[in-house]
Specification:
Length: about 240
């Protein structure tokens, strides 16, 4: 019997079909019922396959559900993301639901007690990318408390450069207003939210990860300011 490989779950056709059914029947209708949603820039990722890192700004608990529910199917079919092991993996039932809805793998946060049975997830971001699985990362590390974009940590850029995969910048607006910190449900006025999918970006040979992630952050900032997936840099 071959040794279990934790990456296998993320390459499973059966689990991919389950996630797609959940997205079609549950999460996408729910997002569209609660929010006025518009996705821009799908042309920027036409034909994009294999591994890449979706990097987005993070201002609401709605962000991950919006990404996994509203992005094009060819992006969300395999998309995976890390989830705090000390929070989402403490109980088996919550871990299972999180895995089904968001295709998650556990991430150990600094200063938090290691959660049982998650040690095999060490280095999963790199393992999944090398297996051709795209990853969602919010490089601010936590939600913005005031809706303003914070500092982007360079980890996503470092991994992208090391493995040689692109970063897809994703600018999300309206999430903070729809569900600010402290609310457990979105506001009831069918708030407008927009997702702008930018063109894939590769790290330059001479760039440090800090410089690369700063360039990605600036692209997201321009998309938000200009309200377009293809901002004009001359208007910056």
């Amino acid at each position: 019997m071959s040794e279990y490989n934790p990456v296998d779950d993320y390459c499973s056709e059966r689990k991919r079909k389950i996630r797609k059914a959940v997205r079609k029947v549950v999460t996408r209708p729910a997002m569209n019922a609660l929010l006025g949603t518009t996705v821009w820039g799908e042309h920027n990722v036409e034909g994009l396959t294999g591994a890449y890192i979706v990097v987005g700004n993070h201002s609401s608990h709605l962000d991950a559900p919006m990404v996994f529910s509203l992005l094009p199917d060819h992006m969300t079919d395999n998309l995976a993301t890390g989830a705090a092991a000390d929070y989402f993996y403490r109980k088996k039932g919550i871990a299972k639901l999180t895995s089904v809805f968001f295709n998650t793998y556990p991430i150990e946060r600094k200063g938090k007690t290691t959660t049982p049975n998650t040690s095999r997830a060490t280095g999963m971001t790199s393992k999944l990318l090398r297996a051709g699985i795209p990853i969602l990362i919010f490089p601010e590390g936590t939600r913005s408390r005031d809706g303003k974009m914070g500092v982007f940590k360079p980890g996503a850029a470092a991994i992208a450069k090391k493995i040689g995969v692109p970063i897809v910048p994703l600018a999300m607006s309206g999430g903070h207003e729809a569900m600010p910190v402290g609310r457990v449900l979105p506001t009831l006025n069918h708030p407008e939210v927009n997702l702008f999918i930018g063109e894939p970006m590769f790290g330059k040979l001479e760039e440090t990860p800090e410089e690369f992630i700063a360039r990605v952050r600036h692209q997201i900032e321009m998309m938000l300011d200009q309200k377009t997936a293809n901002p004009d840099p001359t208007l910056d």
